[in-house]
């Protein structure tokens, strides 16, 4: 090999050495890039898992727990109530389906309509007064009188009216039983109250006051 | 050709080095007015130089530790860049904070000529065994005897002949005339 060829060969080998070095650097550079990526990943805060504040399952569970808690609290509070308190809690005015009040200028409003209007307005003293003054003391009117008397704290008068309806053995018989049971309860006569309530509870399901009677009996224990 | 020239141990050493020094050294550069992106580039280039030295010379070469060497390399590169831009009158080697790295860094910072850049692409097209032979000889500085033993060529002469054939192949790949003899 002559001197010139030796020089060319050496120069080429230097270039190959440099080329190999550069190629290796490319590989190392890739590795360093992966280190930077790892570093960046480590520095990032953990990805926040965005969850709805109330997802469906959470909501259902929470709602169930709340309902259960509410039921327990209600049950406990009711269990802890006195018979009088239970009676007051269940004693609500009998709805007026007997004589719906017509508000029209074309018709003459009867005394019975005025009295029922007072009943619907829960004007108990005036309702008792006007209802009691009516000529036609049918079972519906007497139920209204008994309710008005109850809310006027005239329990004896209320009991008398409901008993009268009971004796009529008519359409409002079960209603009268229901109110008499609650009045006995209010007066602390639990066993007497239970007689009325048990008879109502033994009626077909969803019959008048049947479900309420079952509830009250359950609360009485 | 090999995808990652580092052994598993070297990979861990470089990985630890990178993580342990990144914030401090990039901060050092930024505190001197270097743009954060340029600072990251300079830091990675410095890690590359240290890694290359680790592959070629082994861990025992770094008597003051990898981190100290990395800091010196980075400072050298920082001053080198400043000097290249004409922003500084001092030579990096005049700075007492920089170890005597001139030979090593001149080699690292050497700009390739066009033919070297063409060869850089061609060596990547060689088969894996041919590339490995050149890598062991030119990059890691192994002797032909060591290469023959490591790669199973039987004798040193067989390894030499193989290397000669690979170089000729490269010459052809870049359209260079083959010399008359070895």
Describe this structure in words.
The complex is a heterodimer of chains A (221) and B (182). Chain A is built from ten helices and no strands. With 221 residues, chain A is mainly α. Chain A has three domains: 1-46; 51-80; 82-220, Alpha Horseshoe (Serine Threonine Protein Phosphatase 5, Tetratricopeptide repeat). In chain A, α3 (83-90) packs antiparallel against α8 (173-186), α5 (124-132) runs antiparallel to α6 and α6 (139-151) runs antiparallel to α7 (155-168). Chain A is rod-shaped. Chain B has 182 residues and is mainly α. Chain B folds into two domains: 8-109, no CATH class; 114-173, Arc Repressor Mutant, subunit A, CATH 1.10.10.10. Helices cover 66% and strands 0% of the residues of chain B. Chain B is built from eight helices and no strands. Classes of the chains: A mainly alpha (221), B mainly alpha (182). At the A-B interface, α1 of A face α1, α2, α5, α6 and α8 of B.
Descriptive key words:
heterodimer, A: 221 residues, mainly alpha, Serine Threonine Protein Phosphatase 5, Tetratricopeptide repeat, 3 domains, 0% strand, B: 182 residues, Arc Repressor Mutant, subunit A, 2 domains, 8 helices, 66% helix
């Amino acid at each position: 090999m002559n001197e010139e060829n030796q020089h060319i060969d050496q120069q080429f080998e230097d270039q190959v050495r440099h080329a190999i070095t550069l190629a290796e650097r490319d590989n190392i550079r890739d590795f360093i890039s992966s280190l930077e990526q790892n570093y960046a990943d480590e520095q990032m805060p953990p990805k926040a898992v965005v969850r709805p504040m109330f997802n469906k399952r959470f909501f259902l569970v929470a709602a169930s727990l709340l309902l259960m808690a509410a039921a327990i609290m209600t049950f406990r509070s009711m269990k802890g109530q006195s018979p009088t308190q239970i009676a007051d809690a269940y004693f609500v005015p009998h709805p007026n389906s007997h004589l719906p009040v017509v508000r029209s200028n074309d018709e003459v409003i009867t005394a019975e309509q005025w009295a029922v209007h007072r009943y619907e307005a829960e004007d108990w003293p005036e309702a008792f007064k006007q209802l009691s003054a009516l000529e036609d003391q049918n079972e519906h009117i007497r139920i209204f009188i008994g309710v008005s008397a109850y809310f006027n704290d005239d329990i004896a008068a209320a009991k008398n009216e409901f008993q009268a309806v009971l004796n009529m053995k008519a359409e409002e018989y079960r209603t009268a039983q229901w109110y008499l049971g609650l009045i006995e309860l209010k007066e602390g006569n639990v066993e007497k109250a239970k007689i009325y309530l048990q008879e109502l509870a033994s009626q077909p399901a969803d019959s008048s006051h049947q479900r309420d009677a079952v509830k009250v009996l359950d609360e009485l224990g | 050709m090999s995808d990652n020239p580092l052994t598993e141990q070297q990979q861990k050493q470089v990985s630890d080095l990178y993580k342990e020094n990144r914030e401090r050294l990039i901060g050092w550069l930024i505190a001197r007015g270097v743009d954060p992106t340029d600072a990251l580039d300079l830091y990675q280039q410095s890690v590359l130089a240290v890694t290359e030295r680790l592959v070629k010379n082994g861990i025992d070469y770094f008597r003051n530790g990898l981190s100290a060497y990395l800091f010196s390399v980075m400072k050298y590169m920082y001053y080198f860049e400043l000097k290249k831009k004409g922003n500084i009158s001092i030579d990096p080697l005049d700075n007492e904070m920089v170890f005597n790295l001139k030979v090593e860094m001149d080699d690292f910072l050497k700009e390739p000529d066009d033919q070297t850049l063409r060869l850089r692409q061609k060596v990547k097209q060689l088969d894996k065994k041919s590339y490995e032979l050149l890598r062991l000889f030119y990059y890691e500085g192994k002797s032909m005897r060591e290469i023959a033993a490591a790669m199973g060529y039987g004798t040193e002469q067989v390894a030499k002949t193989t290397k000669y054939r690979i170089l000729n192949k490269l010459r052809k790949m870049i359209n260079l005339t083959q010399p008359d003899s070895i």
